[in-house]
Amino acid sequence: MNLKQMVGIEAATHVTDGMIVGLGTGSTAYYLVEEIGRRIAEEGLSITGVTTSKATEKQALGLNIPLKSIDEVPYVDITVDGADEISSDYQGIKGGGAALLFEKIVASNSKKNIWIVDESKMVETLGKFPLPIEVIPYGSQQLLKKFEEKGLNPKLRLTADNERLKTDSDNYIIDLHMETIPNNKVKQLASWLDTLTGVVEHGLFLDIVDTVIIGKGTSPETIN
Ligand code: 5RP
């Protein structure tokens, strides 16, 4: 079993009958969704899923997981999602899979958030992983210029075919290649990004996570 599978299966043990469950996006969350699908089929687990991307929606429908949109539920009991980096003070960068907008909406409506990662995602400071910013296409060149002027080394994310990548909401992603974001500067950066017109959402997920499940060695480590 690989580390992503290990943490996905471990996270699924936090899911119990009757829960409304936020289903994350990415290659680690994939295993959580598979395990929930298995438990529904084999153990009669009864849950309602709220997906965070079209990709996860497709996977969940294939597994016959009952789904509702975030607007059809009163709240989400628990959301399990991956992360691109988690700092020593448990702040995160997400959005490597371009799903940060729905992921943040679902996470911020969840009573509990669990992140599942392999140990390579645990870092001292954020920023080695480029920080994804979701922007509306109109005015995106102006935002690129603004980020460039600030020395944030922005790059518009492209697809494998060299097209501009479009998110599930038809927006673009600008990745900020900052190399490092000192822990005491993270909130300041998030607040500034929040003020920019045309920025829909950014990949700094701050003060959101309750539990981190880390895949390492032969068994997962859970930090609450
Ligand atoms: C998608 C995300 C993912 O959770 C993040 O990129 C981690 O993905 P993976 O588990 O494939 O490494 O934020 O937008």
UniProtKB/TrEMBL annotation:
GO terms for molecular function: ribose-5-phosphate isomerase activity. Pathway: Carbohydrate degradation; pentose phosphate pathway; D-ribose 5-phosphate from D-ribulose 5-phosphate (non-oxidative stage): step 1/1. This is Ribose-5-phosphate isomerase A. Substrate binds at residues 25-28, 81-84, 94-97, 121. Keywords: Isomerase. It catalyses: aldehydo-D-ribose 5-phosphate = D-ribulose 5-phosphate. Gene3D superfamilies: 3.30.70.260, 3.40.50.1360. It comes from the Bacteria. Its EC number is 5.3.1.6. The keyword Isomerase applies. Catalyzes the reversible conversion of ribose-5-phosphate to ribulose 5-phosphate. It holds the Pfam family Rib_5-P_isom_A. Homodimer. The active site is at residue 103. Belongs to the ribose 5-phosphate isomerase family. The keyword DNA-binding does not apply.
